[in-house]
Amino acid sequence: MNTNKKKPKNICESFTPELTRQFIIDIDIALKKIDINPVKELLEKYHIENFQDSIDFIEALDYCLNGWKKEHMGSKIYGEVTTSDSKCIACEHGKGMVVYEFEYIHSLAPEPMNRVVYGRDFGILFDIRNEILFEIRVCNAFLDKGEMERLRIV
């Protein structure tokens, strides 16, 4: 039996418009967990974990999801993870993206520092062409909510 399946060379070869729409829903759910493991599992589920773009994405995302944690300080999410639309202001200038925002505390820090609520955000840029995902990237240069609101008024 000849199973001569051509191995995809790019992420886009793994997606259809329907799979792209479902992936966007699934990655949103995974990212809101602020945990790298569900994201890695999702890339495996869609069979895109070994592409260089996916490897780069996980590497950049790891800092966003883990860089705020302090060992032995009881770091934990405080409240819900929220999202908002934004625009890239650097390498993909003007391209739409989704910003994930969350607050956290270090519950085991000495008083009163254990009551301080910190905030963090990161952007996810989806390169979708003709309804097919070509690339997913972390973006750290984007407009904040206030800037987006001012742009809507103009």
TrEMBL record:
It comes from the Bacteria. This is Uncharacterized protein. It comes from Maribacter ulvicola. The lineage of its organism: Bacteria, Pseudomonadati, Bacteroidota, Flavobacteriia, Flavobacteriales.
